[in-house]
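Risk register update: the risk of archive-format incompatibility is retired. Evidence:
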Amino acid sequence: MIRLFAFALAACCYFNPGFARAEEAAKQLVGTWKLDSWQVQYVGEDAREPFGAKPNGRLIIAPDGYWTVMITKANRKPATNNAERASLLKSMLAYSGKFTIDGDKITTGVDLSWNEVNSGKNQSRFFKMEGDKLVIRTPEQASVLTPGKRVVSTFTWEREH
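Archived output:
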């Protein structure tokens, strides 16, 4: 039975080599990543850092194909009232979901999000690994925060050891 399974897996990888490459890419991504930078580029404008030069962030990629992202503006202060709590929501983003890989494209089926506009939707990104660095870039898309503008975001992560 084990030989039959091994033969079936080998045949699958032979006839669908993209599957084997996606599996290998997913294995390389597994781990904990610390955010190094986040840049937002509105089409026709200079790039900006929406949460400052050194935002806080963590990306956790699990072997079972789920990832969790949390990013916050640096130097946030504890909230003492409802207005300050609401303001804190504008200085963070967080979501999780199961991902799939196709070449350099990673697509997450968002199951939880700090902003419900994202829950239940797929988010596609492009990625490349450069040693212990992971660069994730969004495709050009309509901005959720700035209607009428198109935007590309680039996140640079560093693997934590």
